[in-house]
Amino acid sequence: MDQSLQNLLDKEQQQLNTALTSYISELDMPNRLRESVLYSIQAGGKRLRPLLMKLTCQGLGGDPQKVYPAAVALEMIHTYSLIHDDLPSMDDDMYRRGQLTNHKKYDEATAILAGDGLLTNSFHVITTTDLYTDQEKVNIVAKLSKASGLEGMVAGQYLDMEAENQTISISKLERIHHLKTGRLISFAVEIGGLLAGVSSERMEILKNYGDYLGIIFQIQDDILDIEGDQTLIGKRVGSDIDNEKSTYPSILGLEGAKQYKTKYVNEAVRCLKEVGLANTDLALISHYLSERNQ
Amino acid sequence: MDQSLQNLLDKEQQQLNTALTSYISELDMPNRLRESVLYSIQAGGKRLRPLLMKLTCQGLGGDPQKVYPAAVALEMIHTYSLIHDDLPSMDDDMYRRGQLTNHKKYDEATAILAGDGLLTNSFHVITTTDLYTDQEKVNIVAKLSKASGLEGMVAGQYLDMEAENQTISISKLERIHHLKTGRLISFAVEIGGLLAGVSSERMEILKNYGDYLGIIFQIQDDILDIEGDQTLIGKRVGSDIDNEKSTYPSILGLEGAKQYKTKYVNEAVRCLKEVGLANTDLALISHYLSERNQ
């Protein structure tokens, strides 16, 4: 990875971990439940979404510090979704990022409640900050609940499970991942723009950029499940094939998937140019997402 | 039950069911997931919380129709909590209100996602209505997420499970039910007051009234698990004893629990007097909650 991007990600991880840990630590809640929440919050996420939000806001002339409440809320929702997706009745995963999944470390009921609580409190974080106007708060809650709810991420996870053991078309696959992964990545970029006060025209381009990043992220995820290094990814390689999941490589072939990914990287870069962000670290991120090995 | 209260509850059920069904039906989401959400939404809840919100708002001079977005959101959160509480790893219930629980009718993964989605979209309902100012929206989301999150209902459900097979003190029991049931009932009353624009002094009394109602509701729930009619309640009687759960009767004895309940009914009625609501249907509700047989 490019060293300056690595530095950015490291710094962002530190800032986010501090903000998240301090928020959770100050809540008046049962100790073991708090431990379980902190376990998943501190499990070493890349904090990619917060970094996207911050760089977009900054690149468009906004105050980068202003993104924090929305970024913290977004990471809480992302973390809840991972905890619930890993459950036995869902993807039944034992490890995530090289550590036991929440329900394996604690128990299923605690994992479900930790997820429910993270989801619920994410909206509390946004509505109780001093950094946003009421109008901004309402806008952010409306967009976040739509992106992650029954028409967004929840629908994506449902369709993803429904598609197991089925051969699906590339457009169906794209729809699933747009909902499951793309919507929250797009939200990150969109809120970065919103907090910088950009025009609605540029906002549309930002949303497309976010969508493309989501697809790139997912194609690379699928590729890593075939040719990735287990010790770097922190989870078992080959699980998609074992679970007979439709993936970009299973539909397009490995080389076809790589070409498809390149097409979207070019689209993403084009969007950045159109909104005047081509010479920012966001371009590095588009390439990183495409080439990452973990 | 008093006939006029019965009429009120019937009418409220109809209005709420229509509002909830129409909201869910218009969402762009997978069909089977929608069916599962509607299954639990239409499972015959009493819609007590919305009625409390409406009567409080109306009694204090507000427009009763204004409560609907908040009432719909509240019922969505109440419904999600029932779906998740019934899961095998939680209370492992097969029936609720005489029907199969959501995970028995569909499957565990669908039930978890239906719950997650109802919770998430409840905040979307509030932030996208035309009936509230931005300030009201922010206030309602902040209060609802606090009442139902890691410091509220989620903590209550966690502590409730932790207390299984344990003998706990009456104050611990009260804290559990305050969090698990009381917080949302109190929210209903509080938002009724907020939308009627009451003073902060009267708001405090309303919150106490809501807390007392929550306790009355729970004591009667415990009593019904001993001397209730299974066909009326729609779930098995005696499950608390089988699960060795601490309840008001197990700690205070059946008669002691009934006396304790009477004390709280008197407190609730006193609160109503203090805020000038003694001669409204809210007084009927306090007594109904105390004497209900289902």
Automatic annotation (TrEMBL), chains A, B:
It is an enzyme of class 2 (transferase). SUPFAM superfamilies: Terpenoid synthases (SSF48576). Its cofactor is Mg(2+). One of its GO terms (molecular function) is metal ion binding. Signal peptide: none annotated. Keywords: Isoprene biosynthesis, Magnesium, Metal-binding, Transferase. It catalyses: isopentenyl diphosphate + (2E)-geranyl diphosphate = (2E,6E)-farnesyl diphosphate + diphosphate. One of its GO terms (biological process) is terpenoid biosynthetic process. It comes from the Bacteria. One of its GO terms (cellular component) is cytoplasm. Its EC number is 2.5.1.10. NCBIfam families: FPPsyn. Belongs to the FPP/GGPP synthase family. This is Farnesyl diphosphate synthase. It comes from Gracilibacillus salitolerans.
